Amino acid sequence: MDSVGRVVGTQDATPLVFHVAIAPDQYLQLDDVVATVREVPGKGPVMTCGIVTEVRSRHEGASFASDVFLIADGVLPATVQEIAEISTTRVEPECYVPPRPGEPVRRATGDERAQALYFDKMERQVAVGTGRDGEIVYLNMEFLDGTRGAHASISGVSGVATKTSFALFLLHSIFRGNALANAHNAKALVFSVKGEDLLFLDLPNKRLDGPEGADLRDQYAKLGLPAEQFKSTAFHAPPFPGDLTGKPNVTSRAQGIRPFWWTLQEFCRDQLLPYVFADAEDDRAQYTMVVHNVTALLKREAVAIGDGGISIEGQACRTYSALVDLISERLTDPETIHDWAGPAIGAGTANAFVRRIRSSVRALNDIIRGDLPDRPERRISTDGQQVTVVDLHNLVERAQRFVVGVVLAHETARKEAAGPGSLLFTMIDELNKYAPREGASPIKDVLLDIAERGRSLGIILIGAQQTASEVERRIISNSSIKIVGRLDSAEASRAEYGFLPPGQRLRATIAKPGTMFVSQPEIPVPLAVEFPFPAWATRASEVPDTGTSDASRAYTRIPIADDDDPGF
């Protein structure tokens, strides 16, 4: 193949970084993949491959900035020279010698590109988009499914970095590609805080039938993926506040949404009280001892009275607020305080607990119930469908933390009991709320357990956050795959983004929606990728028009498929 330039002789070339003078009739852009070969005595030809991480253009022969005008008028002779900086990705065979000045450099294409980016070593590839050259970029599934590593961290500015869109595209590529032998058995648990946008994943995007539909289908076809919606789904939303029928609190879709809540009986029996305090406070605070004592007493003393209600010491409770009132009475009564709080607990510590649990009533009263007829579909579970979406946007932050903590703890326990064999991908947006860098909480403990032990259980965390610098360090460090979209300039300077070369850090501050920088262990330089627009509806306005004026009939629920359905 024709060369695009030659290795520069006026700047030092090393086995890891070298520079290329670009020929007058050629160009190199950021993220291009190049290769050069030199003969090494006793070794034969050694190929050094790399990615363009910087390109500079200057006048050779000019001394002053104003000389540019004289050069443009032809008065002063000068030559325009472009120099590309190349960061080495692979040396084959592994003889780490610098490229020789004057050696021709060519674009890497086909098998040579695959070799430069280690795609030839990936036995199970997941397409994550296309590079600047228009060719497919892959992830090594072994670093995501727990074989050699697990978990993915996605960072970027809210509303611009398209973190959620990329995470869903990654799930689509995993489920519909050929990287997993039993992809139909893999599951995804998605916690949604972005309005009602994720309640339409089971419906095709109307763009597929629009003017750009053919191009969008071609983009997916190039990646070896179908341009279609998620077909095996379940959607859960909290009940409408104050409604005694359990109607889900959703406005844009009238069908196919399951309300969720926990009964008071479950709250006591399953010891869920600690998740009420999942706000990352100092676990050395004395009131946490009261939490554990009251939790144990509720489990021991609560008696079921039907429809999820309970009776404690002869007093019936049908609502969370009634239970909180009962607990508060017992903890403020001198005769019962030590029975409930513990023998060594003083009134000040008990009052601190009471203040905190009373403040939770507004947040949790609608999702911890004993006044609704029990029905199986209210339980959040990944059984019976491939993708489970839990809508949290109508809940305040405290309730969101409770739901995420309880659901994750349940799914982790269930997965641990079932043993390895299938994968559960857990997608959490705004991860910094649930696992902040400082403080401790039950939900943070669950997330840390998943990050550190999840690969052995088959639980894969896909965390998205605006600022990785505010997330617990051990979660970020245990994520084998790191992905960055548009970044705030101050955030881009943080140590958490040290895996980005200086040029990519700067580019991340101006990246357009749909552009992501993907880092994986095998490739020393993150790869810039562009992924296609979602083929599934991401909001009500993208649902195809059914030709009916009844909006509620437009959103017909696609039946949930069985785990063995080959159509996943």
Provide an overview of this structure.
- This protein is α/β, with parallel strands linked by helices.
- The protein folds into three domains: 5-116, no CATH class; 125-259 and 376-544, 3-Layer(aba) Sandwich (Rossmann fold), CATH 3.40.50; 262-369, no CATH class.
- The protein has 17 helices and 23 strands.
- It has a ten-stranded mixed β-sheet.
- A hairpin with a 2-residue loop joins strand 22 (515-520) and strand 23 (523-530).
- Helix 6 (287-301) crosses helix 9 and helix 7 packs antiparallel against helix 9 (347-358).
- The longest helix has 22 residues, at 397-418.
- The chain is elongated and about 95 Å long.
- It starts with a strand and ends in a 14-residue tail after the last helix.
- The model is unreliable at 547-568 (pLDDT under 50).
Quick take:
With 568 residues, this protein is α/β, with parallel strands linked by helices. It has 17 helices and 23 strands. The two termini are 42 Å apart.
Secondary-structure blueprint:
Blueprint: E1 5-7, E2 17-22, E3 33-40, E4 44-60, H1 67-72, E5 79-92, E6 104-107, H2 110-116, E7 125-130, E8 136-140, E9 152-155, H3 163-176, E10 187-192, H4 213-222, E11 233-237, E12 257-259, E13 262-263, H5 264-269, H6 287-301, E14 303-306, E15 309-312, E16 315-317, H7 320-332, H8 337-341, H9 347-358, H10 361-364, E17 368-369, E18 387-391, H11 397-418, E19 424-428, H12 431-434, H13 442-457, E20 459-465, H14 473-477, E21 481-484, H15 489-492, H16 502-508, E22 515-520, E23 523-530, H17 551-554
Parallel strand pairs: 9-20, 9-21, 10-18, 10-19, 11-12, 11-18, 13-17, 19-20
Antiparallel strand pairs: 1-2, 1-6, 2-5, 3-4, 3-6, 4-5, 7-8, 14-15, 15-16, 21-22, 22-23
Helix pairs in contact: 6-9, 7-9, 11-13
